[in-house]
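Per-residue structure
===
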Amino acid sequence: MSDAPVAMISGANRGIGASIADTLLAAGWRVSLGCRTPPSERPESANWLSCHYDALDAASGQAWVDDTLRTFGRLDALINNAGILSQSTVLEASGDEFDRVMAVNARAPMLLTQQAWPHLVAAEQGKVISIVSLSGLRVRSAASGLYAMSKFAAQAFVHGLRHCTAETRVRATAICPGFVATDMATAAQVDGASVTQPEEVARVVQMLVTLPPSAGIATVPINWQIEDTV
């Protein structure tokens, strides 16, 4: 069995997740892709595994972790990338929408990290990286209110996790991009050609997963334009 490091990446069938997978593969990693609908277009490879993962189903997370360990025998990095967009203000949002957005954007990364945790601790220098959003650092508009609530919670999870890693060699980081050229940006009617590209976020992930435990980084904001509040 190869001794190349292994990363699990949620929401990896397109956009940022797919770019992270491609970038890590090119850098010699093995990757386990967690997707609601696993991609079918990738060529067969011993270095990647495609598994079903639904952020609303905690059991699918445990099954994904188990499949990854059974296939690769180790886990070095968990990339929490799956997320959903809301454009509801905090006065418009229903209780059901609140529950769904918080479940996917905040609850799911916490539960998946718990499931992967023993294996990350066993790694030489495990990493947990959450793709959070600049909306976890500021509220940009009324229409981003509910989404920002979920992303502030996702950011708080990463910082809470950092306090839990003191006796281990695991390090946790929140990456906070602004708009990225993905389907989510398209839904928000943003011109994808002018904003941060998925492969640029992936390059930051690659850098973070190779850092030693002595160089822990809490938060990495990434933006395509200057904001005076970030």
Summary: The two ends are 45 Å apart (CA to CA). The chain has six helices and seven strands. The first strand starts at residue 6 and ends at 10. Strands lie at 6-10, 30-35, 48-52, 77-80, 127-131, 171-177, 219-222.
